[in-house]
Amino acid sequence: MKLTKNVSFTAVVALSLFLAACGSTQNQARPTQSSSATLATSSTTTPSSTTAPSSTTTPATEEQTAGELDRTYRGRDEEDEVTLIITGTSGTWTQVEPDGEQEIKNVTIDPTNQRIVIGDDTERYFLEGNQLTIEDISEVDVNDTIVLTKQ
Q1: For the purposes of burial, counting CB atoms within 10 Å of the CB of 86, is it exposed (0-12), middle (13-18) or buried (19 or more)?
Q2: CB neighbours of 133 closer than 8 A, spacing ≥ 6?
Q3: Residue spans with biased composition (Basic and acidic residues) (predicted)?
């Protein structure tokens, strides 16, 4: 009987130590997780953080830059008449050939990199006053430039 009490007592003590150790590990893990969450939250909202300002100000800058382009532009690409309508970061490119054939392409604007995707072609653009200049990135020849005027 004395042996059974010793074994039972030893088992209870061992189990208690085990549970205490597990509880201690869980308690240590929780502050780390919550402090990480707190750190992440504070780094995205604290202006002194180096990553938060760039990530929070970039979309506003993109919207402002894209908003500057919101217009209808007209011009020529060789013999074709071109109409470009931009709203936000998207739009349509309508190209009418001299024989009346019309081609319409979707347009996507990347104001951060000053890129415009017309159909499948990626071009570079510059806005100077009321003129939107579009250059072919892949061509070195400066004759591959289209100048459109705000309407």
Answers
A1: buried
A2: 125, 126, 127, 145, 146, 147, 148
A3: 68-77
Rounded to whole angstroms, the Cα distance separating 122 from 65 reads 18
Full-model pTM: 0.56
SS3 89: coil
Q: What is the pLDDT of residues 11-46, one digit of tens each?
A: 777 767 777 776 655 545 454 444 444 444 444 444
3-state helix, strand, coil in the chain (%, to 5): 40, 35, 20
Q: How many residues in total does the chain contain?
A: 151
Burial class (CB in 10 A: 0-12, 13-18, 19+), 115: middle
Q: How far, in Å, CA of 61 to CA of 12, rounded?
A: 65
d(CA 134, CA 83): 13
Fold of 64-150: Lipocalin (2.40.128)
